[in-house]
Every structure is written in C-alpha cells, then in structure tokens.
Write a structure and sequence with these properties.
With 279 residues, this protein is mostly beta strands. It is 6% helix and 42% strand. The protein has helices at 9-12, 17-24, 64-67; strands at 2-4, 25-26, 35-40, 46-50, 56-57, 77-83, 88-92, 95-99, 104-107, 114-118, 127-133, 141-143, 149-153, 162-168, 179-185, 191-192, 197-198, 202-209, 217-223, 226-232, 236-240, 247-250, 255-262, 271-272. The strands form 5 sheets. It has a 7-stranded mixed beta sheet, with no helix packed on it. A 7-stranded antiparallel beta sheet has the order 2-21-18-23-15-14-13.
C-alpha cells in the first residue's frame, strides 16, 4: 500500500509539476489481476482500484496489522465502490451483489470478508473504491445509478451543464462520514465546479473516466489566490486537500467520481470563490 503524507498549503506553492503529481496524482488503478491502494494521511482516506481476473479479497496481499493496526480491513472502516468496467460481483460476508457498469455499493464498518470478482475476464469489472475511518456500523446497500439522487446543474452557455448522481449521500443511505457519487458532463460541456469552491471541513478525491487515449482534463487545485493544475488522463484520481480548490476543464465532455470525508456530510456546505478572486 502506497502511503501519501499530508502537504502544507505554503509548501505546495513551491512544488514543481513533477512534485505536484507525486504528491496528489494516483495512476494505474486498474491493472488486470492486480490491486492498487493509496493511503493518504489527509483524513486517512484509502483510494483503491480492483480489476479482478480471479476472485480477490479486500485485504489480499495487505499486512493489516502493519498498515491499519486492526485485525481485518473494515474493523474500523467503511467502504464505497462504483464499478466503471464490465459486469462484476462483490460478496460481503457471504452475500453477493451483482455490480453492473456504474452500480454503487456501500459496505458498513465491521464486514469481515469482502471479495471482488469479474463476470467475464475478457471484459473485467473495474471497482473504484474508497475507504474511510468509521465509528459505527450502517447497513450495506447496493445502489444502481437509477436509485442515486440525480441533481441537474449548470448552464450550456457557461459550458458547465452536468448531472450529479449522489450514491453515498444522506438522502440515499446512512454512512459514518464517507460521501460518494459521480458526475456526468453533458455533451459539449467541459467545466465542472466553476465557479469553484473549497470546503475547509472536508477533503475530496476526484477520479476522471470516460476519456479516450488522447483526451485530458486540467484538474485545477491550489489556494484560490495561487492556483496550480495537474493534467489528468483516463481513469486517474487526484487527492484534493481541504485548502485546495478542485475544479476541472476537459477538451471534451467526461465523467468523474467524487468522494469526500471530513467533519460533515452536507453536500452544499461550500466556501464559494468569486471568479474575480482567482489567480
């Protein structure tokens, strides 16, 4: 498991492009048959990618005691999953959930055995997974995209028309602190979250997908008065600290998955930034 330490906003102003990418970018999440895990000291969120060719366990190849100090992975954690690949299955303590493309699953604190599988090795599932510390158990729940709360936003004249699908959200299900969902940009729209914002009370991880080989997204970050960017390719994630803006602009429409942990789960609890104050 890769460990990422927190970064001070004052130090980040001096980062080169390479250092920014080393600190915040997460690549190669879906290598068939492999497991990718990145543990961030920022709110102790774990970002993971599973692309199983055979049945794989949540804690497989992980020294739980050394990394988490627990007897099993979800002893003190909760889990959110969205499938961005082919059809698959997730089995939680003996109960199997069928995961079609863009299906979501919440797994509550205390689940002891979690297994990931693909229905077809030639079209494997790609389970994008986030885990956060949890203090109590809430029930597991499967959420297909039709059961997510849909929130249309934006204006085509501002190139930011999009639909937000809220999966792990208080109006859909109960969690300890993890919020998670996906956003789809309408055709011809390229800006997400602009005008932008920060939320000092929560950090966020963005995962961009539905991009072709030559497509990209400029992920904007940094403090509002001294911004930076990271070039994002298909199926890459980026860690966004609480002090940073998190906005993006692509060369075409794209999708992204957002996940947040922190002090609250109030989706619209944001500190908005006026366009005139960005630098």
């Amino acid at each position: 498991m890769i460990i990422r330490e927190p970064s001070n906003s004052k130090d980040a102003k001096h980062y080169t492009t390479e250092r920014l990418r080393d600190e915040f970018l997460i690549q190669d999440l879906f290598i068939p048959g492999k497991i990718k895990r990145v543990y961030s000291h920022i709110d102790r969120i774990i970002t993971m990618g599973y692309c199983p060719l055979e049945k794989q366990e949540l804690g497989e190849e992980l020294d739980i005691m050394a990394n988490l100090g627990t007897d099993y992975f979800l002893e003190r954690r909760e889990l959110g999953v969205i499938n961005v690949g082919g059809k698959g299955m997730i089995t939680v303590d003996g109960k199997t959930y069928t995961m079609n493309p863009e299906d979501g699953l919440y797994v509550g604190q205390g689940a002891k055995e979690v297994y990931f599988e693909s229905a077809d090795q030639n079209d494997p599932a790609k389970f994008y997974t986030l885990s956060a510390p949890a203090h109590c158990h809430y029930d597991d729940k499967h959420i297909d995209i039709t059961k997510a709360k849909q929130v249309p936003l934006g204006d085509p004249s501002l190139a930011n028309q999009r639909t937000i699908y809220q999966f792990l959200h208080p109006e859909v299900l109960e969690t300890c602190q993890l919020s998670m969902g996906l956003t789809k940009m309408n055709e011809g729209n390229v800006w997400n979250t602009m005008p932008c914002h920060t939320h000092e009370r929560r950090m966020e991880v963005y995962f961009y997908y539905n991009l072709s080989e030559n497509d990209l997204v400029f992920h904007m970050m940094g403090q509002p008065n001294e911004t930076r960017h990271i070039i994002m390719r298909n199926e890459e994630a980026v860690i966004s600290p609480s002090w940073s803006i998190h906005s993006g602009c692509g060369n075409k429409a794209y999708n992204f998955i957002w996940g947040m942990v922190g002090e609250n789960k109030t989706f619209n609890d944001m500190d908005h930034i006026d366009m005139k104050d960005l630098r």
